[in-house]
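Request:
Um, any thoughts?
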Amino acid sequence: MTERTLHYEKEMLFLNSKLMEFVDGVEDFFEKTLYAVKSGDERIIAEIEQMDDYFDELDVQIQLTAFDVIAKYQPLAEDLRFVVAMIGLSIDLERIADECVNIARLSRQVQRSLESFSSWETLNQMMRIISVMLQQTVDAVKHKDLDLAIKVWKRDDEVDKLHNEGHDNLIDLACHETNPRMMRVYLEEAFLIRHLERIADHLTNICEKLYFMQTGEQLKKIMRPQH
């Protein structure tokens, strides 16, 4: 094995280890975020805000390494798909972290109006589903489990349905509301369920990229063929 090959394999292993660090970190981050929503614990909210820098740095490390590998070694076929997928996966994970920060910050206001929350059950259902989707996405990435990736991908429709129903309900309530305070509560609720829906979208993206990395085929086209 040449020195060049050794360096190449070392950088590919580095990419994979950083991705594992990222998925584990985001899973913990999301659990902290759910706790922040339910508790309004300012200590946890501040911790989430501070941890955002850590995920930004991980994203930068993965992307720079991936581009460096492409420039220096010009990988082909499966190796190229792996490196390109690392860039995409890192971007989606970083955006999930951003959505968690947005949710945590919003939870400061939510806690002041929790007793007035009209979409609490919808929010709870979305949080439960996305928590399972995230856990399964982490397992799918770690074990390159495409069946699990497809399972996660399909559950996005459940989240979209809950989001759309919650959103329509809030609009209906707002149309009949005369209390300015309640209008603000509805707006906070709408942002919360929107941020959660975006997290589900990013998980779906991750599963599509994982599928492409392993097969070279696009999952969306397979699941929803054009006629």
